[in-house]
Amino acid sequence: MIDLNGMHVLVTGGSRGIGAAASRLFARAGATVLVHYRDHEEQATALVEELFAISARDHRRFPCDFMEPSEIEELFQYVSSEWGRLDCLVNNAGIWLHNPMSQFDEDRYIATMRVNVRGPFLCLRHALPLLRLSKQASVVNVSSTSGQRGEPFYSPYSASKGAIISATKAWAAELGPEIRVNCVAPGWVDTDMSSAALRDDPAVREEIESAIPLRRVARAEDVAGPIVFLASPLARHITGEILNVNGGSVLCG
Predict the structure, then answer these.
(1) Is 78 known to be catalytic?
(2) How confident is the model at residue 197 (pLDDT cuts 50, 70, 90)?
(3) At a CB cut-off of 8 Å and minimum separation 6, what does 183 contact?
(4) In this structure, are residues 215 and 209 in contact, taking their beta carbons and an 8 Å threshold?
(5) 186: nearest Cα among 161, 207, 154, 160
(6) CB–CB of 234/1 below 8 Å?
(7) Is the whole model's pTM more than 0.85, yes or no?
(8) What is the mean pLDDT of residues 166-192?
(9) From the candidates 37, 78, 154, 157, which is the catalytic residue?
(10) What pLDDT is attached to residue 194?
(11) Which fold has domain 8-189+219-242?
(12) Helix (H) or strand (E) holding 131
């Protein structure tokens, strides 16, 4: 039912977890996907080969460190030279660093803000000329329940994800009607980022799941579906929306 044939999609942080699951689903829907990654070249290469097996499109991969603004600019220069336009930007790349206030680490705070907030801002700035060449342009940001209710010992992460929620609403109001901007806010998701918390101690996982009305931690695929939906024509009258994907753990509108 979702047909994205002809669409060109950039997924940041696309080599693993939610980004990889979204890349696969975009490819199944007919889109051509550019997988951005930083360190995991082998995983990005394997994923692009998988995307080719899903659909014979011109799928690509491109390395970029979001700590370096010049590299973000190079990423979009590559998109411009190879594709000439962009139909969907998925701002998924992010970091989750432990940073208790009693031992506050300013370097971790700065890194979190540079990657999780400045990164999406710069991506959108560079993407705008390319998105404006599309007839179905959209941006899907990936935030978190942490940005809605806060998360102890990870306050810079919470602040960064709250900023993305606010930015989503501001961008939607500013960039319409040409470009739709929406956001997904996942709760706990079983990915490499959260593996230490979820997989190392079964008791911790049981405690987390007991607080979720659907009684399970999400898989990456559970978040990928809403991302692709928001990028699709089915969501053509949706912008500025924060779509909660948390099993009911945070019940907010």
Answers:
(1) no
(2) low
(3) 140, 141, 142, 143, 164, 165, 168, 241, 242, 243
(4) yes
(5) 161
(6) yes
(7) yes
(8) 95
(9) 157
(10) 64
(11) Rossmann fold (3.40.50)
(12) helix 119-131
